[in-house]
Amino acid sequence: MNFNTLRYVVAVAKERSFTKAAKSLYVSQPTLSQNIQALEAQLGTPLFDRKSYPIMPTYAGKLYIEFAQQVLFSESQINRKINNTISNPRMRIRIGISPSKSVLIMPELIHSILEEFPDCIISLEDGKDEHGLFAMLENNEIDVMIGSPIHNNVKYKSQFITNELLVLAVPKGFDFPGKADAPLQKGFRRIRMAQLKDLPFIILPLSTFLGETLRLLCEKEEFSPSYSIECSNVQTSYNMAKQGLGIALITELMAVKNTFRDDLDYYALQSGTPQQEIAVITNGDGIMTHPVQRFIELFKEHFLNSIN
Question: Which alpha helices (DSSP H) does 192-266 contain, by range?
Fold first, then answer.
């Protein structure tokens, strides 16, 4: 495969003319034509209909043009990454993660990374929601993100880590039917959502996964959650709960890593306990530096150790 020939094919498809394509690439028309003719002979089919005006690709040509564009894009990506490495010999890991998980797990994880790669620079993007992080990943502004798995295997590569439970953080002063009899399973007391229907909640927006999930859990038990506080950040809702202001739906990691067990009780549901999938997501090109690969290994190890 010759990259110049790929460029010739793409240029002809763009310019719809061998002459214009040759001028745009600063090569002679005979050189461009001969390269494409040799490729067509190798493939056994013409890529362009030379009888049409302007020149149009054949069906085989359209397939080959799409392939050529993908290869040239991949080449430009790897060249850019290699040039970045040459110009900046200090390796960099650019990580996208939610604010709550960043606070709970990243300090010790970054400490481990810097012990192994003391010259590494770590850029932490923990101020955006998942949509913003996916946009940054697509634009190569971060190398890796922690979020929900995505099933687009062309643009992204998802490595599933685990299903994380969602649990209810309930102020210890709150009383409800059956509280004393709640069974203990896997570290959490188990209750039914209906037992909490007369207590106040702290609500996240419906547009968030936790906000939507809480409403659906209440709807399933045929009641609407009573609340006086709505906030946009799960960490804020958790802090409100520990002040005794209401019940918050939080992640399992927040429950096990917290330091406020004197203020809150943590409950999972007896049936239909909600979960969220946790994955490490990278660009689909599969190109990762050794520090990024090691970060992924350590994140998986730290996260699973924290909740198990």
Answer: 209-220, 234-242, 252-257
pTM given for the model = 0.66
**What are the tens digits of pLDDT across the range 46-71?**
999 988 888 999 999 999 999 999 88
How do residues 198-210 score in pLDDT, each as one tens digit?
999 999 999 888 9
Angle separating helix axes 18-25 and 3-15, nearest 10 degrees: 130
The DSSP result for 18-53, as a single string, is HHHHHHHHTS-HHHHHHHHHHHHHHHTS-SEETTSS
How many CA atoms are closer than 13 Å to the CA of 221, on its beta-carbon side? 20
Q: Determine the distance from the C-alpha atom of residue 157 to the mean position of all C-alpha atoms in its chain, rounded to a whole number.
A: 9
Determine whether 298 is exposed, middle or buried from the number of CB atoms within 10 Å of its CB (0-12, 13-18, 19+).
middle
Q: Which helix (H) or strand (E) holds 223?
A: none
Contact yes or no for 96/232 (Cβ under 8 A): no
Polymer length in residues for the chain: 308
